[in-house]
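QA checklist item 7 of 12: single-chain prediction sanity check.
[x] sequence parsed
[x] length recorded as 308
[x] structure emitted
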Amino acid sequence: MQQRLHALGTLDDSLVEQGYFCEFTHTALREFQANRGLPQDGVCDRNAWDALIEASWLSGARLLYLTSPHLRGDDVMALQTNLALLGFDCGRIDGILGPNTVHSLTDFQQNYGLVADGICGAETLQALSRMSSQTGTGPGIVSVRESEKLYNAAKVGNSLKIVVGCFGDLQSVSRGLTRRLREQYDDVMTVEESDPTLHATSANSFQADVYVGIAASTAQHHDIVFYETEGFSSPGGRRLAEAIAAQLEAVGFGQFAVKGMRLPILRATRMPAVLCIFGQGLQPGFDTVVSALSAGIAGWFAPQSPSE
């Protein structure tokens, strides 16, 4: 872990004794977690370790092609970001090289006159670099498509498909929210599992339009987080987080922190997703919380122009 932190420039080797988790290592790990949109707890758990490994993959360090399991890394995210800026829709920019990314890569190769084999090597990287240097710095096709999909779904009304997920001991909130949403929308599903992968798999299989997660925290503050990386920010997720935060603050919760993160549940879902993390002292009561969450979702889902 120390070697990877040093390679990323967050840990000075001269200050630490290799193999010992000292204060300098703890601080460097927290800095890395902050940069990666992970909880800044200074604990090298599975999520932090996976992120360290993925961060070590720089563009051009390996061939990128479809494998099982899918390749993951910063090199994949850089590829997806460049493709999106050039107008090739590779789906969510998540650093995971799946079929959508390979399809977009093949389209780019074909348009550029390269061998369309879906393999990103040196020649394809050079072509991407030349083309992307001529583009702007807008949100890219992926963000635009997400906004358009939400806008089109909103015009249909109660056809919204929602998944409500619960982590921890807030089933009263998640189940109450599910009941309230079923009064307005036809398809609402609840997932109560500790593994975020199961939440994402269920939401993706359900082809949900939105995922709303509920989680408990020992912190003294409340957060609502959406998916965001250096190359992508979910417009639907951000807007939903802000809408829910506004409703919760209106009923006496005080200030909510709305921020982008790369938590596994936000990364693996293919639709706009938020995770509402409630700290200590969930006040006011559950019914009020449920009403605020429901109102936030309903307000967010009102038809808006894709540019909004």
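[x] summary fact logged: The longest helix spans residues 235-253.
[ ] second reviewer sign-off
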